[in-house]
Design a protein that fits this description.
Elements: E1 8-11, H1 15-25, E2 35-38, E3 54-56, H2 59-64, E4 68-71, H3 75-85, E5 95-98, H4 105-111, E6 118-122, E7 132-138, H5 143-154, E8 157-161, H6 167-194, H7 199-220, H8 224-230, H9 237-247, H10 250-265
Parallel strand pairs: 1-2, 1-4, 2-3, 4-5, 5-6, 7-8
Antiparallel strand pairs: 6-7
Helix pairs in contact: 6-7, 6-10
Length: 266
């Protein structure tokens, strides 16, 4: 089957589920008519009907109409949702993807029919603008299923296959990391306002600067310190600012925050 003919349902369209939904709807190559979105309250997703998305409160119906099932509910709800739909899953047809933090593949296997292709994936809310970094692991799924799962997550950004024991670390960097970077951006904007820029101008400068710095590393493949050295001249304002930030714990506080988040979910 052509992958763009695969039908997908997103069970639980909260913030993350809606971000994935937005990314798929915006993709001109994938038919929105092949997407089903579920949520207890349809008012929050009814606008997607205008794009051809089918919406429902009935998870069992959604599963019957789909090939790929993305379970985007809160971790404490995952096993309950899987219990409700398990009798309607066919290992010859369905692939199940859980987005839940800290619900492991073996737990998912125990809750679902034998031989069902099962994946865990951790995208982030940048899926909304097709710039997610999604980490994926699986239960020794076949190449066909792996290609299918990557097809959908590559529609909303970039995906990477990792071993399950690394999923917690990847979640902290790729999912919690979105909030860390946004807090850094907010601080830069506040600093810009303090030195004389209005909020709108400071925000425009900072957003593009951060985007440009990330693109520079992605396209050139250099270590960050290599690019930092290019803009730190002797006795210049850049090195003075960097040293002041480091004296006040910039790098160490970021590292401590990452480790603290990891300790919480591991």
């Amino acid at each position: 089957m052509d992958l763009k003919n695969k039908r997908v349902c997103i069970i639980g369209c909260g913030n993350l589920g809606k971000s994935i939904l937005n990314g798929l709807v915006d993709d001109t190559d994938y038919p929105s008519e092949h997407i089903i979105a579920t949520k207890r309250s349809l008012a929050a997703i009814e606008s997607y009907e205008a794009h051809g998305v089918r919406i429902t409160t009935d998870n069992v119906w959604a599963v019957g109409e789909s090939d790929v099932i993305i379970v985007a509910v809160k971790p404490y709800k995952v096993l309950s949702v899987l219990n409700d739909i398990k009798e309607h899953l066919n290992p010859e047809k369905h692939t199940v993807i859980s987005l839940a933090t800290n619900v492991h593949v073996n737990e998912l296997q125990e809750a679902l029919p034998a031989n069902l292709p099962i994946f865990r994936a951790m995208p982030n809310t940048a899926a909304d603008v097709k710039e997610s970094m999604t980490s994926i692991c699986h239960n020794e799924a076949g190449l066909s299923e792996l290609k299918t799962v990557q097809y959908f997550f590559d529609k909303i950004g970039t995906s990477i296959i990792i071993n399950e024991e690394l999923m917690d670390a990847a979640t902290v960097l790729g999912s919690c990391g979105t909030a860390f970077v946004l807090r850094f951006i907010r601080a830069m904007v506040q600093g810009g306002i303090q030195i004389g820029l209005d909020s709108k101008t400071a925000t425009a400068i900072v957003n593009q600067t951060v985007k440009g710095a990330a693109d520079l590393l992605i396209e050139r493949g250099n270590h960050p310190e290599f690019e930092i050295d290019k803009v730190t001249t002797p006795k210049g304002c850049t090195i003075l600012g960097l040293n002041e930030m480091e004296h006040n714990g910039l790098s160490s506080s970021l590292i401590k925050g990452i480790v603290t988040s990891y300790d919480k979910i591991s």
